[in-house]
Structures are given as C-alpha cells and as structure tokens.
Amino acid sequence: MVTVYKTNNKASQSAIQYLQTNHIEHQVKSYRKNISYSLIMSLFEKSIDGIDPLLSKKSDCYNEVKEKIYDLKLSDLISFILKNPTVIKTPIMVDDRHLVVGYSKDSIRVFFPRN
Fold it and tell me: If 0-12 CB within 10 Å is exposed, 13-18 middle and 19+ buried, where does residue 106 land?
C-alpha cells in the first residue's frame, strides 16, 4: 500500500487523483500532522539520491540556508526540517520499497503492481 503525505497543493491533489484513477491502493495522511523524526529518517533511508530530491528549492527557508544545508550534521538537518517543514517537497509517496517526492506520472509508475 502506498502512503501519501500531502499538503494542500495542486501536486498533492494530482497525485492522489492519479492513484485513484489507476486503482492503486493508498492511504492519505497530512504531511504537517505526521512529520516526525522517524518519518524524516525513513525518507532519507529510502532516497537513493540523498536529500537533494526531497528539498523544495522554491521554499524561502531553503534559500536562507542553501549554502550550509549540505554541511549540517544529520541531527541538525532533521531539527531544521522539523522546524521548517516546507523545506521538503510534497506530495511524498512511499511504500515498503519506493519513495516518490513531488508529482510525476512517470515516477508514480513504480507503484503499479507487477503481474
């Protein structure tokens, strides 16, 4: 099952609609209500390209620290994200093996069942 962590943005709405249209079993959770240390660690563990794909480069808080963000210790980075949750792109879609951040029809295909 895919878990979608959403915010109130068009990308989150589009991702959920795409999953529904394609009959992909999913549950929807509020990103803001569910952000936690363990969620962030889980995202880091599943990201094959490090933290870069997770970061919302359009976020004001990202622009304030973009020069230093890659030099932060892991604990400091997680604290920063918990204090500034908009630095992470949404929607976030995860299952037991995959992570997709943002909305892309091509990327979401990893959740299609294999027959």
Answer: exposed
Q: How many CB atoms lie within 10 A of CB 101?
A: 23
Residues facing residue 100 across a β-bridge: 93
Pairwise CA distance, residues 89 & 98, whole Å: 16
CATH of the domain at 48: 3.40.30.10
| Residue 115 predicted with pLDDT over 70 | no
Measure the CA–CA gap between 21 and 17, rounded to whole angstroms: 6
Domain count, the chain: 1
Domain that holds residue 47: 2-111
Strands (E), the chain: 2-6, 26-30, 92-94, 99-101
- Is residue 99 helix, strand or coil? strand
Length of the chain equals 115
φ, ψ (nearest 5 deg) of residue 18 = -65, -45
pLDDT tens digits along 16-26: 999 999 999 99
